[in-house]
UniProtKB/TrEMBL annotation:
Residues 133-449 form the Glycosyl hydrolase family 67 catalytic domain. Keywords: Carbohydrate metabolism, Glycosidase, Hydrolase, Polysaccharide degradation, Xylan degradation. Residues 450-679 form the Glycosyl hydrolase family 67 C-terminal domain. This is Alpha-glucuronidase. InterPro entries: A-glucoronidase_C_sf, GH, Glyco_hydro_67_aGlcAse, Glyco_hydro_67_C, Glyco_hydro_67_cat, Hex-like_dom2. It comes from Actinacidiphila epipremni.
Length: 682
């Protein structure tokens, strides 16, 4: 077989299991996840001629729980030689002694992650000696949120901001019950280390409140499909559920009846799903109900739900995406970027221990470039999770190639307190104060899962960065290529690898070049957010402005003359952002309103930078397409996958040209400053 026949397999094609499948494998231990490991091994060895064998015979690989009795000698040896800290339920040790490859773990999840680790290593897991090494996830919670609607929303469809077809869970108000597909999905997620999902949209429609009541069996069925892969299911809930369901007249979090209602609801959920993860809540945001209606705080609201879940060990993921989407746009002192901090920072220390405050990585809304949210550094006494957007709402909607690994790596590596201080990754990884990493899923019922086949790499990279935030995003691309494409090739993969790197490595920067400049954001068509519309949101109440006029552009967020947003950062960054001279170029227009002639750190004026980057970005998109087209007829990738990517690159090239022309024409007309190189601007 030369090319993929089962596109559903994504980064787990059966060929990737050949190295394990040809070998004699011992699996030691009991429990549901150990059974999953056994099933995986049975499947692979059934195809490739190896076998699941007993401890008395010759064997090449051992997967063992540390507590198994009697532990085979090689596993006991690896364990005895290990001197590091606790592995926990999800960590594992890998080593190779006397020709036997060994994975030892304390829990079934660790063993399963160890199996997928060996799949990533391929044949190299079976060569020479491997010193025992521990692999433990840096973050305890690695979660994917689906914005899937039970019933198609009239505007948003079945998946809000979904670009990969319908929901794999729901259709037309019913559970789809395509459980084999859900299990295949759970398996893909486990292979990248994801251990939590939420299966419905944060904007919870009235009918969806019934997931907590008469539809609970549907939810339990999904939980059953995820459980064998170590993934805990969560639900988004509507804060006003007691009212929406017609049971009570109030949803006031301090009302005893309301508290009892939620306690009973949680009891029912746990009776059906004993390992249920908890609730995800979007409250008082973009029209969702919340505690403000009753004069209560977000801590009041979150803690009430937390109390209902506490007896069962559940958590509330309370989202910090709270702002006024009907702000007075004539008032230049209000600033949407300030909102999350202004709402939440004063409540630091007031949230219960099983509340996780889920903060978007930037202060606005998943733009191509934003500074890191100041909320992340402002709440040391609150458990925080950082939320990323894998679905490409603002980054090309899975029609454009935009590999986001490099952006997320920058976010995770950012040090809010400056040099030498803790990083964002350190904060979310902290064993007591960290709430992990969450991302909005990019998956649907599309044959490639993600619409754009190359968008799979974003899901892959998210999971792997949540496991190891220090991972190099380009190396993660290699891993993804090695699993997804290389096992299917019987010849040299180097040309394919170099094409994929050429198309993907710099694609986020390319996308940034042809869209909104210098961190100012938006400029997208209102509503669906695809393609350029420079003034689309400029004179609306949404709070997303660029303030371009004939003299200059950008948002003054300084303390000296602007909205004061820079003051929300710890001193090191507050000062850097406050001054035009020290503010990083790529964020200049996020923080400052400057004349078109302002000279950037790069030595170029703002207006010339806009022209240069837009010409360059559109050209790079065309080069990406040309690189991909070189694969035509080579058989290096499946023909339908090749065609799907090419068709999307055609659209990317068209759209990048549209962005270039609209943005350049707009700023030429506003500023009256021509392009120094006399290129064509419409
Ligand atoms: C925005 C989306 C909107 C979501 C919202 C959220 O445009 O569809 O409901 O975020 O995060 O990016 O709640």
């Amino acid at each position: 077989m030369d090319i993929a026949t089962d596109v559903h397999a994504a980064w787990l094609p059966s060929e990737a299991f050949r190295p394990i499948g040809t070998r004699r494998v011992v699996v030691q231990g009991e429990g549901e996840l150990v059974e999953t490991v056994r099933r995986e091994v049975e499947g692979a060895t059934g195809v490739y001629g190896g076998g699941l064998v007993g401890t008395g015979t010759g064997y090449d690989v051992v997967f063992a729980l540390a507590g198994a009795q009697p532990l085979v000698g090689e596993a006991a040896g690896v364990l005895a030689g290990y001197e590091g800290g606790a592995l926990g339920g999800e960590g594992f040790l890998v080593g190779r002694v006397e020709g036997v490859t060994v994975v030892v773990a304390e829990g079934g999840a660790g063993l399963l992650y160890g199996l997928f680790h060996l799949v990533r290593l391929g044949e190299s897991a079976f060569r020479g000696e491997l010193a025992a090494r521990a692999h433990v996830p840096a973050l305890r919670s690695r979660m994917l949120d689906h914005w899937d609607n039970l019933t198609a929303h009239p505007v948003m469809g079945h998946v809000e901001r979904g670009y990969a077809g319908g929901s794999i869970f729901w259709r037309d108000g019913e559970a789809r019950r395509d459980l084999p597909r859900v299990r295949a999905y759970a398996r893909l997620l486990a292979a990248v280390g994801i251990n939590a999902v939420s299966v419905n949209n944060v904007n919870v429609q009235a009918a969806e409140t019934r997931l907590l009541t008469e539809r609970l069996a549907d939810v339990a069925e999904l939980a059953d499909a995820f459980r064998p892969y170590g993934i805990r299911l969560h639900l988004s809930v509507n804060f006003a559920s007691p009212v929406v369901l017609g049971d009570l007249e109030t949803a006031d979090p301090l009302d005893e009846g309301v508290r009892a209602w939620w306690a009973a609801a949680a009891g029912r959920v746990y009776a059906a799903i004993p390992d249920f993860g908890g609730f995800v809540v979007k409250a008082d945001s973009e029209g969702q109900p919340g505690p403000f209606a009753y004069g209560r705080t977000h801590a009041d609201g979150a803690n009430m739900l937390a109390a209902a879940l506490r007896p069962y060990g559940g958590q509330v993921h309370w989202r910090a995406f709270v702002y006024d989407h009907r702000q007075d746009w004539r008032d230049r002192t209000t600033d949407r970027a300030r909102a999350a901090y202004d709402h939440f920072a004063p409540q630091d220390g007031e949230f219960a221990a099983n509340v996780v405050l889920q903060v978007k990585h930037g202060p606005m809304d998943f733009q191509t470039r934003e500074p890191v949210s100041p909320v992340i550094a402002a709440m040391p006494r609150t458990r925080l999770a950082v939320e990323l957007q894998v679905t490409q709402e603002y980054t090309g909607q899975q029609r454009h190639v935009c590999y986001l690994g490099p952006m997320w790596r920058e976010v995770l590596g950012f040090g809010p307190w400056g040099e030498g201080g803790k990083s964002v990754a350190d904060l979310v990884a902290d064993p007591t104060a960290g709430g992990g990493l969450v991302a909005v899923s990019n998956v649907g019922d599309d044959a490639y899962w993600t619409g754009h086949p190359l968008a799979q790499a974003n899901l892959y990279a998210f999971g792997r960065l949540a496991w190891d935030p220090a991972a190099d995003p380009v190396a993660l691309l290699d891993e993804w290529i090695d699993l997804t494409f290389v096992p299917l090739l019987s010849r040299d993969a180097a040309p394919l690898r170099s094409t994929l790197h050429a198309v993907m490595d710099g694609s986020w920067r390319t996308y940034e070049r042809y869209t909104a400049p210098l961190g100012v954001g938006f400029m997208v068509r209102p509503g669906h957010h695809y393609g350029p519309d420079v003034d689309g949101y400029e004179y609306t109440p949404w709070g997303t402005y660029h303030y371009a006029d004939r003299d200059g552009v950008g948002v003054d967020r300084t303390r000296a003359t602007g909205t004061g947003y820079t003051g929300q950062y710890p001193a090191a960054w507050a000062e850097v952002y406050e001054a035009r001279e020290t503010c990083p170029d790529e964020l200049l227009l996020f923080f400052h309103h400057v004349p078109y002639g302002h000279v950037l750190g790069s030595g170029v004026t703002v207006i010339q930078h806009i022209y240069d980057t837009h010409f360059a970005g559109a050209e790079e998109a065309a080069e990406m397409r040309a690189r991909w087209a070189e694969l035509a007829g080579t058989g290096l990738v499946d023909a339908s996958l090749y065609a799907r990517v090419l068709e999307r690159l055609d659209e990317q090239v068209r759209c990048a040209g549209e962005w270039r022309d609209q943005v350049n024409a707009y700023f030429w007309r506003k500023s009256g400053v021509p392009d120094a190189h006399g290129r064509l601007i419409p």
